Structures are given as C-alpha cells and as structure tokens.
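Hi W.,

Here's what went into the run:
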Amino acid sequence: MRKKGKSREKQANVEASLRVSPAVINRLPRYFRYLRELIRIGRLRISSSELSELMNVTASQIRQDLNCFGGFGQQGYGYNVKYLYGKISEILGVTQNYKAIIVGTGNLGRALATNAMFENRGVTLTALFDIDPTIVGKRIGKFEVEHIDKLDEYCTQNQVDIAVITVPRDSAKETAEQLARLGVKGLWNFTNIEFDLSGTRTKVQNVHLGDSLMTLCYNICAEDNRIAAEQRMQSADNQSEQYED
Amino acid sequence: MRKKGKSREKQANVEASLRVSPAVINRLPRYFRYLRELIRIGRLRISSSELSELMNVTASQIRQDLNCFGGFGQQGYGYNVKYLYGKISEILGVTQNYKAIIVGTGNLGRALATNAMFENRGVTLTALFDIDPTIVGKRIGKFEVEHIDKLDEYCTQNQVDIAVITVPRDSAKETAEQLARLGVKGLWNFTNIEFDLSGTRTKVQNVHLGDSLMTLCYNICAEDNRIAAEQRMQSADNQSEQYED
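Here's what came out:
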C-alpha cells in the first residue's frame, strides 16, 4: 500500500518535471543554491519578495517559476524553505543518488576529486582513473587512482551514472565515446573538445572554462571602450564650451 | 601619420564591437576555439558550409554572425582562417594583453595557476595570493604565493585587469569588494557566491560549477523519465495487443 503511494508520488513528480519549461529548469540550480544557503543560516520560510531581493529577480518571476511545481507558497506565509528545497532537489535529480567517476587526474581532475560539490548535490564519487603510470596507484583524497585500462570492467560491474572528463584534449573524443558505449548516462566535460554522441542516450554538459574567460575579457574590453568613448565625448563638449566662451 | 592610421583602425574595431549583438558575442568564444584548432592543424581557409558542419550550426547562421565584422568571407573562396581568428581575437580582447592574478590557491586555484588556458587567450598570470601561512611563500608553477595582505599594494603598483576568485565562500564577498575597490576590471568568480558590484566598473563572470553539475543531473533524470515513460507505453501496447489476440 505504502509502496503504491510512493510510486504514485514519484509518477506525479515525473509528470511535474515534464511540464517545466527549459528556461525554468535553467534557473533551478540557482534556486537550489539560494535555498540551501537559507537552510544553512536556519531560515524556515521566506516570502517571494524577500527571495526576489536576495536573488535579484522580480517577485513575479519567482512566483511564476515556483508555481510550475504546484502551490508551494501560501499567501501571507511565503515559502517553506525546506519543502521547496526538497521539491527542487527531486526535480534536479539530487535525490537519485547518482554515482560518478573522474577520468583524468591532472591538476583539474585532482581539484574536483577533493571538492565537496558532488556530495553537496547528492552525487557520490566512486573512482578515479588515469593513464599515467606515475599517478596510477597513488591516493587522491579517499581514492586510489586506477588505470584507465580498467574503465570497461569498472563500468560494467558498477553503477556509473556520470563521468567527469578531465583528460588531455587528444584523448578526449575517444574517452567520451568509450564512456557512452559503456552506457554512462552523463558526461561532465571539462575539455575544450565537443562530443557528438547522437544516437546514444548519453547527455553531455560542457564546462568550457576558456570560453568563460573569453567572455569576461570581452566584457572588460567593451567597458574600456565605453568609458573611452564617454571621455572623448566629454573632452569634445569641453572644447566646444571653450569656443563658446 | 602611422599612429593616426593605427588609431583610426582601432576606432573602427571599437565601433564594430559596439554593433555586434549580445547573442553573437556569446557565440564568439566558440568560433575562436574552432578557428584556433583549424590553425593548429594547418588549415588556411574554410568555407562557411564546412565550418557549419564542423560546429554543428547552420551555414546561414555562420554567415550572419561573421558578417557583423564586415566581409571576411569571399564567395567561392571561404574564410581566411588566420585573418578571421585575428579579428575575433581583437573583438574578444585577446590582443589587449590583460594581466591576471589568482586569489585563493586551494586545489582549484592551483589547478588554474598551472593551466595553459590563460596564455592561450592572451591573458598573462602575474601573481597568486593566499591567506594560509603554510601556503604563502610556496612555489606553484612559476609563482611564489604571496600573502593576501599584500593584495592592496600589489594592485596599486601593478596592472591587474582580472582577478580569479577561488577563495572559500566565507571570504568571497569581502575579497570581491576589495578587488573592485582596487579597480580590478574583471572578476572570474569560481565561488558559489554572487557579488553585487553595481556602482563599480568591475565586471563579474561566474563559473558556478555546482549549477553545471545540477543541470547535468537534471538532464540525466529527465532522460531516465523519458525512457521509463516510453517503456510503460510499450508495455501497455503489448498488453492491449495480447487482448486483441
């Protein structure tokens, strides 16, 4: 009986997640982050106007976004922080207890291996792999690095939902295709290479750090140009004022 | 005379960059990345249709995007790879020779400090800072980590365009505000905290790794749900077929 209730609830969540628009989905991790922070500081409830000020979006946007999941908020009471956090966690898959491995334990792979981010988001790191014989067998955090030759065997015998790809660019494509063949559901790609895994069920999330740095450089450069243009206008104004004198 | 020509050219670039729409700007780092790869493998020119296949966007999109910078392509000849790369580099600020520092040399800060990404994008790392006395004075790559107490002095006496923020969350806000006060033009923010630097000229580019991981989890979860729904439909179809038999 209880099982049936649980499965019906799960089904309702599935249907809810299918109704949510991609734009809302893209904003959910940010809600997740802010709500977690509110829990951390012991807040039990929050009004949409207060949350809107905190997150720097309109209260109406927040109400619209959160209404997608049914009426979490109550007029004059606001949102129950823990309940909302729980619902958003479910939609985002945080409660699925996904298992992840890291392939490539260079500087970035090592930095990620010891980061609490996975644990904080319900993802459990289970193994690290590398090809370099001087690294294989070494301990990083609570893991002993395994040789990449064991990847097939490991993925066949263990649940691996996510693979973090931090290998050098030259082996990125091959590694991604191998992991997709092995049925890994998601690749978190830190290389600059883009993968074409159409025809597989594997989803790819790219973290193109270089692109992000470039966008920052562009914004700095554009602001430099804007300020310079303003100064030129100013000095032209000053000159024409001089003539008027 | 030559200086005047140069300055006129620079002015033309500035005006070009002001004309480009934000959507195009967001796509530029990706063009930059693909063109660099083409240069790496020795390609001199490429047609918009070939580039479109490579980048998995329509040829018409590519022509539209690149036309923003004036006629780089020639009918029947395609794009001159190096010329286009140079122009996009200019727009993105790669040729500005920006100087960057890293504040916070934990695992992630260290991983970034030894990454070729900066150099590859015309950004020069010049110093690393940390508060931990056991890290200050140690060498990371070609740098000796400096104490964060020296940040003010360093930023006043040296050109610092970009600060990479990889400090713990509790000191993130304070560090960002200090750097903005010091006139640093751009913050590359790897913390989960968002900064409000309105009223300053400082631009912020966030790398919310946790949000990216969450988006991947959501996509995996949604695909799981989609497959499960398909299987339920399939099994319902099979059942109704059985009844029909």
